[in-house]
Every structure is written in C-alpha cells, then in structure tokens.
Specification:
five-stranded mixed beta sheet; globular; alpha+beta; 16% helix
Length: 199
C-alpha cells in the first residue's frame, strides 16, 4: 500500500507554506488514485502551544490522512558532502519508503551527508534540495529527486533559478545551500572546496 508524507514547519502555532503542501499532497493523491476530492491540511493540523520550532509529520494514502505527529525540530549540522551516484533512483513523490536513499547514505563515509548524482547531473542531498552560487545567481538542479515545497516557493519568488548542473562542474561554484520545508534558505551554507566536498 502506498504511503506518502508531508513534513511541515510550525512556528508559534502557524503552519508555514501550507498552500504548497496542500498542492503537493493533492497532486500526489490524484496521480495515484485519481481522486477529485481535495484535502486541506489546515483542517487536520492542530496548533501547538510551544515556542519551539515544531516538525509536523503528516502521513497519508488512498483514504486520506492516516497519521499526524508533532515533535520539536533540531537542525542537523552539515558541513561536508560526498557525491554518490545512482542512475536509477526514483523519488519524485515524497514517499514514506526512503530505503533507496538510505542505502546511498551508507556510502558517505566520514562526510556529514551526500549529494546524489544521477546520469552525471547533481540532484539533492539525502534530505534537502540544494542551490549553488556562481558569484551572481543561486541555481537549483533542474531535475531534482524531489520537487520540494520550499524549492517551489523560492523559484516562484525568483530567489533561485533552475539549471542542469553537471557533477564535474560543481567546483566552478562558490557555495552550496541546503534547504527544505524545515530549513530556511541560508540556514545551511557550505563553501565549495576540496575539504568540504568530495567527488
């Protein structure tokens, strides 16, 4: 049975970027089950009386919302990245099954996380979208593994631009930012050099 997930950031009881999460959830449900009935996550999420940043995890399937959990969020400390290759990996829908990604993470060695390369093009880390800075513009891979909600927002606001980025060209860029629904653009920025990134 297919199960999918939305991870939503909650600050002061307010769910961030909720319209983008609604769009992806309903698009996924329509793709797999051709359902015309849309779900509004605001009808299901309960504001939390907590000053901390809350991670809201919503699991859903064919019959709608199946589970909602709330936990305090602590951002991972990522300073080094290793590029690993998998030309067959697919994760275009945010599934609860991350086994293919987890298998690649096992190859990271002493590095903090991985960047996944597919057909010589870089895509995402194991848990974030990315953008690279050429000194002028922030570019995000045109074909990520997963089109994240924060990525969609940043593209719509013209903060980042889409571009195919070949793995062998990565050292032409100055910096890389990791971001997702929980991590704001700029929260994790790594200078690109031979110490921080490995091919």
């Amino acid at each position: 049975m297919y199960q999918f997930v939305e991870t939503i950031k909650m600050i002061n009881g307010c769910a961030c970027n909720i319209s983008y999460h609604n769009d992806r959830l309903n698009s996924t449900r329509h793709h797999f089950w051709q359902t015309g009935k849309n779900i509004n996550l605001n009808d299901y999420i309960t504001p939390q009386e907590n000053n901390a940043t809350i991670k809201v995890r919503v699991v859903y399937g064919e019959n709608g919302i199946e589970d909602i959990s709330y936990s305090e969020y602590s951002m991972r400390n990522i300073k080094t990245l290793k590029i690993v290759t998998d030309n067959h990996i697919e994760y275009s829908f945010k599934s609860t099954d991350r086994s293919a990604i987890n298998k690649l993470v096992e190859k990271k060695g002493l590095y903090d996380d991985i960047i996944i390369s597919k057909n010589s093009l870089i895509t995402d880390t194991s848990f974030t979208n990315i953008a690279l800075f050429d000194g002028n513009t922030w570019y995000t891979p045109k074909h990520p593994l997963l089109k994240g909600t924060k990525r969609a927002y940043l593209i719509n606001k013209n903060i980042i631009k889409e571009k195919d980025i070949n793995e062998e060209d990565i050292f032409e860029y100055k910096a890389i930012r990791l971001f997702n629904a929980m991590i704001d653009f700029g929260d994790i920025e790594i200078s690109i050099n031979k110490d921080t990134l490995s091919l």
